[in-house]
Amino acid sequence: MNDSIDLNEFHWLLAVVQSIDVGVVVLDRDYRVQVWNTFMENRSGIQPKDAQNQHFFSLFPEIDRQWFSRKVESVATLGTPAFTIWEQRPYLVRFMNYQPITGEEEFMYQNTTLLPLHSPDSKINHICLVIYDVTDVATNRHQLQAANAQLQQLSSIDRLTGLYNRGHWEENLKAAYARHLRYGNELSLVMFDIDHFKRVNDTYGHQAGDKVIEQVARVLREHVRDSDAAGRYGGEEFGVVLSDTDKEGAQVFAERLRKAIEGLEVMHGDQRIRFTISLGVADLSQPANSHADLIAWSDHALYTSKESGRNRVTVYG
């Protein structure tokens, strides 16, 4: 039985599935199109008569030819199907996405199946490519991931300041301490709080106090590096984890921050609010049992700054 009879039989079967919402393409071993169903016509804009006997790679130059050829040859040699999924390869052929519900996606996400088509003599002279539109699945996954990322951010960020909250900030400190134990890199911690903050609240009100905290956080963000972890430790107290920084470098950072806050003026209504901060610095130049020691040392240094007159930096030890 010759190939034309084989393809005629396949066309009879294809007539049954012509209306299903998947792409069906049959390729010969030279990658020339033998079958092109309605799905492919509608999505590509290429009519079956124009696709017939055309080289598949000329119709879709975006396809990774080497990769796709390996796939097809494996199917033809082993006689078993092969698959691609959108998570690993978003699409095989680039079709625009026109679905109204998932319209925010620029292109159609696709899963594909490559099927060996056995002739009566058991030879595999043709490969069937089936393309599934999974844009709705991809969109739902992306929306879920975005929602989870937003929830994760909300759970780790202090709402008033936009800095890390205490729990997430302390996890960053733990991780930095673990890296120090493994690699021996420098690690410093700066703790500081706003001097006489209760007086600010009592004099100007709690809304003014919140505005002061917000402005301190803004200035802090301007001074930290991407590798640093700045957080609100509680109330008017803040902490900054400085990786790859010894106490001398941390002292320089702390002094710059102190001067920036000292020169800050917060407007609340027609009130001009000026204030200062006191800071404590500690590093791991002496042995520590855990990250909690670093917190205790820098907090002790902070207390010393307050006892010594405030608006100053103290280095532990």
From TrEMBL:
Q: Which GO terms describe its cellular component?
A: plasma membrane
InterPro entries, per database record = Diguanylate_Cyclase (IPR050469), GGDEF_dom (IPR000160), Nucleotide_cyclase (IPR029787), PAS (IPR000014), PAS-like_dom_sf (IPR035965), PAS_4 (IPR013656), Rev_trsase/Diguanyl_cyclase (IPR043128)
GGDEF domain residues: 185-317
Put simply, this protein is called diguanylate cyclase
Major subcellular location class: membrane
Q: Where in the cell is it found?
A: Cell inner membrane
Does Transferase show up as a keyword for this record?
Answer: yes
Signal peptide interval: none
**Which prosthetic group or cofactor does it need?**
Mg(2+)
Q: Which reaction does it catalyse?
A: 2 GTP = 3',3'-c-di-GMP + 2 diphosphate
One Pfam family this sequence matches: GGDEF
List the top taxonomic levels of the source. Answer: Bacteria, Pseudomonadati, Pseudomonadota, Gammaproteobacteria, Pseudomonadales
One GO MF term on file is: kinase activity
One of the GO biological process terms: negative regulation of bacterial-type flagellum-dependent cell motility
What is its EC class? transferase
Enzyme Commission number, as recorded: 2.7.7.65
Q: Which residues form a coiled coil?
A: none
> What keywords is this UniProt entry annotated with?
Kinase, Transferase
